[in-house]
Amino acid sequence: MADKRPVFAINWAEVEALAQGRHDNPHHILGMHETVDGVYINAFIQGAEKVFAVCKNSKKRYELTSERVKDFYSVKVPDRQSFIYYFEVEFADGTTKTIEDPYAFEPVIDPIDISKFNDGIHYEIYEKLGAHLCMLDGVKGVLFAVWAPHAARVSVVGNFNNWNGRAHTMRRIEYSGIFELFIPGIEASEIYKYEIQTKQGNTFMKPDPYGNYSELRPANASKIANLTYEWQDLEYRMGLEKITDEVPMNIYEVHLGSFKRPKDGREFYTYREIAKELAEYVAQMGYTHVELMPVMEHEQDGTYGYQTTGFYAPTSRYGEPADFMYFVDYMHQHGIGVICDWVPSQFPMSESGLAKFDGEPLYEPADTRRSENPRWGTYIFDYGRNEVRNYLISNAIYWVSKYHLDGLRIDSAASMLYLDYGRTYGNWVPNQYGGNENLDAIAFLKELNTIIKERFPYCKMIVEEESGWPMLTSTVEDGGMGFDYRWNMSWMRDLLSYMALDPLYRKYEHKKLTNSLSNAYDENYILEFSHNEVVGGKGSIVDQMPGGYEEKFSNLRLLYGYMMTHPGKKLLFMGQEFAQFKEFSESGEIDWDLLEFDAHTILRDYVKALNHLYKKEPALYALDNNAGGFEWINDTAANESIVSFLRKTDRKEDTLLIICNFTPVSYDSYKVGVPYAGAYKEIFCSDIEKFGGDGSKNLSVRTSKRSACDGRSNSITIGLAPLSMSIFKLTKDAPVKKTTAAKTKKAGTVSRKTAAAKKTSVSSEKTVKAKKADSSKKKVAADQKVSEKGKMNSNSTKIK
């Protein structure tokens, strides 16, 4: 049979291209190649004096020589088939180095991976692209792979090759846009970049878009990461399967670098150190989750992480990837969920990021009317490109899978959904139907949420969208976007605007207080006072309250009380729980020193008590997304700026009655309608002394009377403190009467006597009848007054 081995000959034009750094497939010439009468072994090694190929089995050495092109070494071994070898290289300084040939290995990324990636459906592409510690043919090293379809040549550079772009040129995988190279001997923590040469001959370096770890800013090289970690949160994660919307969700929003700072001269605590500090505080305060402002790598501290440069890398400001895994693990072991802000809406224009990654627009659209966000000076992703969409969806899966996150919050979805977002007339391109909706972004978000829900049903997908785009939390099947929750930004804006008013004028803006209930169940909402409300010259939350020092704190307690009793999950930014006065700044920790002052300590304790009450009372969370969980008692008392309402579950005994007084007027006897006859106990009041108030006006249980008010047959009369919130709970139903007054009259007996009649000895039936007639007249007169006042829906009150 004829020998079918391929014919190989050195193409010196290829060698010249290799030496000049212009070759995009060096495996075609380097490495071992069989011929009909032996094998060629070729190498490109700069600075070598002698190069030997050593057979791993026989240890036989073959010297490679350099003849026509400097640094290109070659040897033909006659009458041999392929064998496993390594290089021994002698350098001019007398040193010898053993080198595994990076060009001796077959491609790793197979055609199925490539096809799925190019189709935008390879949701674990992060396992293939990027830099991965691995072993090939018994050799340890790192597999590098990057998508750069416009590049003429891509090389891996780092300290291991003196940042020499000709040392480790990558193989182009045809028809994929992917370059790949396995480099033996590289270990974890080694820094690297990709050197990219454009078709125009320009050369520059870029960090790895799929890199799992990065240098500490201002340096920006990628680092080889070891993602091995032994998780200890199995018990917590098993419990996630039982979590539904009918559980409390109270989120503490945190910027990790500014929560607390070390006192030993270091700039930041590590992920591991922060975990212990934060978990203890959050657990004591009664929060259920933390939401982290972006931990993905970013260059500028002042962006808070929202201009991401390393989408697959937790920032090295606080440690390594395994340290962030420890952070999440530690939180889970203490029963605290972890949500991360995620920014698929933009990326910076800086050279160290994704911008014009391979010399041309790649992750961004080519048309600047589509690609640039003029409001923030950033690029927008090209959601219509399969590989870009795949990059982002895989990224979301990566964080949930590798780091066990409980949720992701999509930042600024409006900038994704509208083609004219932040643009002036004539500077944007309509969609194919002439509208301003970004159809590619809509399709991306639907696909994202569908895939996440299929793989991680427990993962909460949260969206921030300020324009009021409808049906964001409706299922994709029902025509929605598929998110679990959206921030209720209109509620936040209206309420802060209302609270900023002098209480004297709040009656004119009463609808800002009550309007939110008209659409509270259109979406699944999170009520938020986030970092957005304490930056950009807005001041802190307490600083937005009107009045003097004490009045500000009274208003703040009332604000938080109304928030906690209003339908919707909750979120509060760090520092606002103890009334930090200055705006948030990433340059230092929050003002813990304020806790030396009673007012701030008392407010923190108030928020803590509210949080624990929220978790204790099912009516405050169980039917957050069901209109049956809320009922107005009175939402029309605009002149008094008072609202009263019920929070409910399917069980009568869980019902809570909430009354909020948004003026500094005190009421000794405020009448409010109740849903059931019985005894009501005040279980919480924002004005008690331990919370900085004057003390509760309702120390005793309030028993309802059959006296019409607020459209209800029964009512109670309570004390209502100025600028306060009170919560009452039914503790005992009214007893069921065995006989009615009508039956008693028919029997000709007296069933009820006045207190005076009980003390008086009845001498005759005539005397009893006379007293009864007198009592009946008084009762009729009283009932007529109550009826008239009930029709007017007013309260019989005393005002101090």
- Report strand order across the widest sheet: 16-17-20-24-25-26-27-28
Largest sheet at a glance? 8 strands, parallel, barrel
Total of domains: 5
The fraction of residues assigned to DSSP E strands is 15-25%
**DSSP strand count:** 36
CATH superfamily of the largest domain: Glycosidases
Architecture blueprint of SSEs:
Blueprint: H1 12-19, E1 31-35, E2 38-44, E3 48-55, E4 61-64, E5 72-78, E6 85-91, E7 96-99, H2 111-118, E8 130-136, E9 139-147, E10 153-158, E11 171-173, E12 178-184, E13 191-197, E14 203-206, E15 222-223, H3 234-239, E16 250-254, H4 256-259, H5 271-285, E17 289-292, E18 296-298, E19 308-314, H6 321-333, E20 337-342, E21 347-348, H7 368-371, E22 372-373, E23 378-379, H8 386-403, E24 407-410, H9 414-417, H10 439-455, E25 460-463, E26 485-487, H11 489-499, H12 511-514, E27 525-529, H13 549-565, E28 569-573, H14 598-616, E29 630-637, E30 642-647, E31 656-661, E32 667-674, E33 678-685, E34 702-703, E35 714-720, E36 724-733, H15 741-747, H16 755-759, H17 765-792
Helix pairs in contact: 5-6, 8-10, 13-14
